[in-house]
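chain below, 529 aa
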Amino acid sequence: MRNRIIHILLLGLLLSPFFVSCSIDEEIKDEITSQVIQSDPSLLPNIMAPPLGQLRNFWYRECVWGLQEATSDECFFPTRGTDWFDGGVWRDDYYHTWTPTHRDVVATWNKLNNAISSANTALLNIGPEKPGEAIVFTQYRAQATFLRTFYEYLLFDLYRTFPSRSPFDLDFLKAPKIYRGTKGYDTLLLVAKSIIPKMIPREDAKYGEPNRDAAIMLVAKLYLNQEVYTGKPGYDSCLVYLEKIIQSGHYNLANDYWQIFAVDNEVNYKKADDEAIFVAVYNDDQDYGVDDQVQWVKTTFHYNQLKEFSNWNGCAAPHDYLINTWINGTDTATDVRWRDDRIKPDLGVNLGFNYGQQYSPTGEPLKDRNGNWLNFTFECPFQNATEYNGVRVLKYPPRVKPVNPARCPNDFIIWRYADVLLMKAECLVRANNDIAGALAIVNQIRTKRNSPTVSAASKEEMLDRIYTERGLELYWEGHRRQDMIRFGTFLQPKSEKPDPSDAKAIILPIPQSAIDGTPGGVLTQNPGY
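prediction:
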């Protein structure tokens, strides 16, 4: 028994970044087995901390966020002289020319599989269901299952494949099950639906703890994309689960759009206009092992701006997206989502889109390192861009006086209420051709954001309105690749990419290292790679 305990603890350490991804205040006792935990429920938060902490590892440029955004029309990382070529990874993202050895394709696969292993370790330590057990064990087991299924969903969305192993199967020399296509989708959906009644209700959940609404949202997301995943529409079913969230009364559109993403945005929890359904929690006084990764200023702004953050002058919003979505899709003079100057007196930059001549907080015009005026232009070539080309985007502001400039003081919003409403509008059109119902939802959001209302006379026109609205409301939040695939625009030409992409680009390649390292030869490459 002692050897088995040691093996389990080592397994947890090896298969998840236990100490770098989580902050655990409680002391973990020596012999953590399901028997110990069943007799001491106070250990459950410790057991859940590692898989929950894994949520912090994905929302940055080189992982899930980057693969959803830098592959889309909404964000790119232009090469600026010798800056940002990085072996061609950003070029491959934008042009959809990945290979099975692409840096971020490999790293994201590995991180998601580590997260799945971490959730499995939690399930192993909690143990299987027991008759008459306290509800807290059921809820924590459901939470660990939700996290594992969410990580599998991210893998499935990007790679259309996920390996799976029972948490109670410790023979790691044996090949895992490989889920693909319809079988993979059905498995995710079955598990996600089964845990909903077992999840802790939002009324009883602590902030940052995945609750029943997050599980409902996962099912809704699966149904929304069912046609992409399996060829069979699931929009009617999606509406059923979206209504559960809407009718719960837990959420409303935020009265202040920018408060959703503000520093210390956990203060929004359970307020009347709270939008956050599922979040990844960050604190800038904690070292989670993701310093300089989840950091929204550094990646985009110029070296001579916000100098305490040691910026890298990287990503920007492509020209066509700006014109098609913003200039032609709303009134930028009134739409609060376009630009907000509340932090400009302190930091010299705007929330939202930064363009034109840039200034210091005290009003002096800035120059680039070559002495040119730092005038961010709408036009930005993908290759050979200047230091001042490109509109810079800031969705999550930094703390004015940072605790640590390499860390993020804002919790990342994975899913929120405006997304629920836009999903409902889309499903109303696709399932029921309900143009009036969808239009009312879109205009509800636009009115809240001080954007002019719109009209639509056909199903196609209404879907175009919804697609545009998702680009206005949810920009740089990690949804765009998935949206573009669902709306049929992902493979189309875009700014600085005149030719359509090969159809294989809908799905990323499986890393060659994963294929080589999986026992039994059961993991095979995706078509076309």
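The domain at 2-284+508-521 is CATH 1.25.40.390 (Serine Threonine Protein Phosphatase 5, Tetratricopeptide repeat). The first strand starts at residue 161 and ends at 164.
thats it, cya
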